[in-house]
Fold this sequence. Notes:
six-stranded mixed β-sheet; alpha+beta; five-stranded antiparallel β-sheet
Amino acid sequence: MTRDPLSIVPRFDGNTVCLVNYRDVRERQRFVAGTFGSEHWLWDTPDVFRFTAGSRELAGVELQMPYLSAYAEIHDLVPVLPAVRPGGLLADEERDFRHEMCTVLCRAPGDTLLVSLRDTDVLDKPLDACIGIAPDVAFLVQRGAVVGWSLTDPARYLTTPYTAPDPNPPSPATRRLLTECLDLITEPLIDEVRDRAPAAIARLRSADAALRAHPEDVHRANALLTFISDLMEDYGNSPASEAS
């Protein structure tokens, strides 16, 4: 650890929580070329941690969102988080590596907090520390290892890829639509969508229509559309007879 967390505002685009400053693919390529750490390779998409050569200090992070919800196994259980201690990370040495993404998502009521965990075994023991590596983003430590991460107020940081989030607070309607979209892409509701249960398909179509007609928070609404775009393509656009 170091004493200096990143000052970068998080970007939450549905697939990842990014702590980066690049604004397009070309800038991302230059960023990766000038740093070291973990990276995506072909179809492999682990978490990305990039460190500055020389100083070995953390330069940027891309955290993959897991969508296996702990709701399916453990009802409404979010781990108790210790007080956040701001800090950064320092690589032991300059070398590339691979960092496995988390597999389980825990959601606080109203989705005011998202907690991603390595696995559900983390819930069996208390956490030792939360390292606040950036505004509203923390790493969760248990027995000397990073076992997950948290994002506070995710609705605030919704945005499309390569775009900084809107500095204005999200509307109440946007917050409700975030919860609805997360419901649709996590267990148990996603199983009902895949089974083409009429009520679940109706909720999917309603969410898509509400986002397309959203009069405020347009950029956040566009980000939320990406959450359910694959489901809409596979299930929501089917004729009514196929979804019954």
